[in-house]
């Protein structure tokens, strides 16, 4: 039991140190304020027709390119994954942001209009990057 008691005491000590640290308290308050400001957008993202259409369109797009599109929620972030690419929709205090992540790690970000068509976002996400170079 000595090890567990020491571990518990160490954790309590760390927690009390963090509680007394004004910089840590300020950071926590800022984080809470950001989450609270983004909460209405998080709710809109979860319940909007855009999200339902996005799920349907993603399944269709995945079927066309013969790959499974994995869809999951991480807290308030919606993540879609296919062929090493990720599409993350995150609520922010100013709206919904989409991060389109390529297999090599390159990331593009853009604002999402929940009144728009999710198909255009999916096409940008799943389109090969060098398609514009071949067309031009």
Rg of Cα set: 21 Å
Any idea what the shape is?
elongated
Task: Please tally the helical runs, counting DSSP H or I stretches of 4 or more residues.
Answer: 5
Overall domain count: 2
Question: What structural class results from the helix and strand content?
Answer: alpha+beta
Name the strands of the widest sheet in spatial order. 1-2-3-4-5
Amount of beta strand: 15-25%
Following the backbone from N to C, one meets helices and strands in this order, namely HHHEEEEEHH
Number of strands: 5
Report the end-to-end length measured between terminal Cα atoms: 71 Å
The whole-number mean of residue pLDDT values reads 87
Oligomeric state, counting identical vs distinct chains: single chain
Characterization of this structure:
The protein has 136 residues and is α+β, with helices and mostly antiparallel strands. It has 2 domains: 2-39, no CATH class; 40-135. Helices cover 55% and strands 24% of the residues. It has a 5-stranded antiparallel sheet with strand order 1-2-3-4-5.
SSE layout:
Blueprint (H helix, E strand, L loop, with lengths): L1 H19 L1 H26 L1 H16 L5 E5 L2 E6 L2 E8 L2 E7 L5 E6 L5 H9 L4 H5 L1
Antiparallel strand pairs: 1-2, 2-3, 3-4, 4-5
Helix pairs in contact: 3-4
Question: Which characteristics define this entry?
Answer:
alpha+beta; five-stranded antiparallel beta sheet; 5 helices
Please outline what is shown here.
With 136 residues, this protein is an alpha+beta fold. Helices cover 55% and strands 24% of the residues. It has two domains: 2-39, no CATH class; 40-135.
């Amino acid at each position: 039991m000595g090890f567990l008691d020491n571990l518990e005491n160490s954790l309590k000590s760390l927690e009390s140190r963090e509680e007394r640290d004004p910089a840590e308290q300020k950071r926590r308050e800022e984080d809470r304020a950001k989450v609270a400001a983004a909460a209405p957008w998080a709710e809109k993202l979860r319940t909007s027709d855009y999200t339902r259409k996005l799920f349907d369109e993603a399944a269709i797009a995945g079927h066309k390119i013969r790959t499974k599109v994995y869809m999951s929620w991480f807290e308030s972030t919606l993540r879609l994954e296919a062929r090493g690419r990720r599409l993350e929709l995150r609520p922010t205090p100013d709206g919904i942001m989409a991060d389109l992540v390529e297999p090599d790690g390159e990331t593009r970000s853009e604002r999402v209009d929940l009144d728009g068509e999710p198909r255009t976002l999916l096409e940008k996400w799943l389109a090969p990057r060098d398609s514009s170079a071949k067309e031009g």
